[in-house]
């Protein structure tokens, strides 16, 4: 039977089991939208393409499925770029369909033309320009396979309008085989043995787990590993939730804004077991002095991550879930009681803390209250900056896929649209976007999408009237010259919420924080914006300045 | 910085060259030479890339190349373990008095005169890259009008 290209696209999405798609229409994708009108899955219309791609990304992170998004050619596609790069840096599986001008017009500076495969080449796992309608079904099948296997990532399919309108005999490829793409998923047995030997003989081992654990669904295996070996564990920002932070062996987050005890434990350890983490500069600081006494085991599915930043003694290329299972089968616990006691003592003596106040609301206090009132069970999305770090530090994450944040790219404006995607993925969960007054204004237009679909997302704005993280750096490292970071000329967020049909609250006193959060939690049929007026010049501590070492760590005690 | 000769087997389709080249340019590395052609399988191309770079960075680039979906195989071509060749076309301003010397030089290098005009001779020389370099240096004093090299191709001996 013959089908048009547009029909093939919708049919293939259906066969991939797509349950929701985000996007925005435009000229060259009208043929596709013509068939999306009665597609057997949900379609969510954003109000800006960037909102659509972040929502698809948030959906992917919360559900573990592939996020799907569509936009038109030219500006539609270029508006997706930030979202695609965000997903690429954090290895999030997306299939992105963009319209393109007709094949004969490509390269002609046609209306709304942009070289989308060229623009997205360095920020995708792979991309396609469909040049023959008979390749279309295969390409879509491959795109889902590539996006979701190995180290996941975004795949762009650029579809010229004449392909969408054209007709061909539809043939759905049952299986995918790409000769040059065969991700290794099992760890090499000899490497597993070597790793076990190092672990069993270690005196001061530390587990350093990252987003790869969550992506591969290995949280359970990680918990078993830690339980079996008794090794203290720290996670990266992307790894939050992989291991319960309420457990005594959890050292919470490491790195630039990580805990004193996690960073010191890594500094002193003699064995660093990196699992699904990539030694990002925000984790290592000055690489040469990162974990200086440690031998390193590195488990990662991406061979190009291994030996990239640090020298590794035992690399194990494979899927975290499989490798941890292999390790758990044979590993024996090292005798490290003295070390664990030492680390626990550091944890007790140098906890994360802030100077609370009765006069002003401390942003950390708001995050703690959100944690308390949601019993740590919410899905927390964040924007980027101080709000993100306070959320990471003061909310105790216990489950994977409950912390959703732009880690690698650090995309302001990510959190709110991602929260929309996350809420569609998990209607059973409370989704809270911990935001700053700067970031929230970057994609505020998506508020109407949450109102339209009655999503009870709570946006907790930690409003300090500053682009706070940059201001903090200016304070600490740039002579307090607050160049263009003061944004206290801002909209009335309560009225803004009400104008959109959302609920709005303003909280200016500490004693009102709890009741406001409670009131927000009682609303279940629309989004809620809470404008928390917090201490304007509160800083995120501890901080290890960029490229520096643990010796240069600034803690709140020093201030 | 050391010279590296990297051979990359890829799917023979549009866009692949841009992907491969992008990994070098993104690091500010200039590709010294690049030769691309079909192989014994028409759907597979091979790219021979000569690039100068830090060992560690090149190692990283090779891993990134392997990560590209369209890349089938990446290999380092070590001179002792591979056959490396290049072809040069050189147009020389040759006044009649000097021509016999040029013919002689061409013969020593087992190169071929491929075109002659009133004022120029064009020579084609093939061989190992160092040999080509030597040939060019010796011919340079006669006056090179135009010169073009194909870029290196390399095949491992094994």
Summarize this structure as a short list of keywords or feature phrases:
heterodimer; A: 559 residues; alpha/beta; Rossmann fold; 6-stranded parallel sheet; 22 helices; 20 strands; B: 158 residues; alpha+beta; Alpha-Beta Plaits; 2 domains; 5-stranded antiparallel sheet; 4-stranded antiparallel sheet; 9 strands; 44% strand
Tell me about this structure:
- The complex is a heterodimer of chains A (559) and B (158).
- Chain A is of the alpha/beta class.
- Chain A folds into three domains: 2-169, Rossmann fold; 189-349, TPP-binding domain (Rossmann fold, 3-Layer(aba) Sandwich), CATH 3.40.50; 363-540, 3-Layer(aba) Sandwich (Rossmann fold).
- In chain A, 36% of the residues lie in helices and 17% in strands.
- Chain A contains 22 helices and 20 strands.
- In chain A, the strands form four sheets. In chain A, strands 3-2-4-5-7-6 form a six-stranded parallel beta sheet, with helices on both faces.
- In chain A, helix 1 (5-15) crosses helix 2, helix 1 runs parallel beside helix 7 and helix 16 (363-373) crosses helix 17.
- Chain B has 158 residues and is α+β, with helices and mostly antiparallel strands.
- Chain B folds into two domains: 2-76, ACT domain (Alpha-Beta Plaits, 2-Layer Sandwich); 82-156, 2-Layer Sandwich (Alpha-Beta Plaits), CATH 3.30.70.1150.
- Chain B is built from four helices and nine strands; from the N terminus they run E-H-E-E-H-E-E-H-E-E-H-E-E.
- Chain B has helices spanning 16-25, 55-67, 99-108, 129-139; strands spanning 2-11, 31-38, 44-53, 71-76, 82-93, 112-116, 120-127, 144-149, 153-156.
- In chain B, the strands form two sheets. In chain B, strands 5, 6, 7, 8 and 9 form a five-stranded antiparallel beta sheet that branches. Chain B has a four-stranded antiparallel beta sheet with strand order 2-3-1-4, with helices on one face.
- The longest helix of chain B is centred in the middle third of the chain and has 13 residues, at 55-67.
- The radius of gyration of chain B is 18 Å and the shape is elongated.
- Chains A and B meet through loops of A and helix 1 and helix 2 of B.
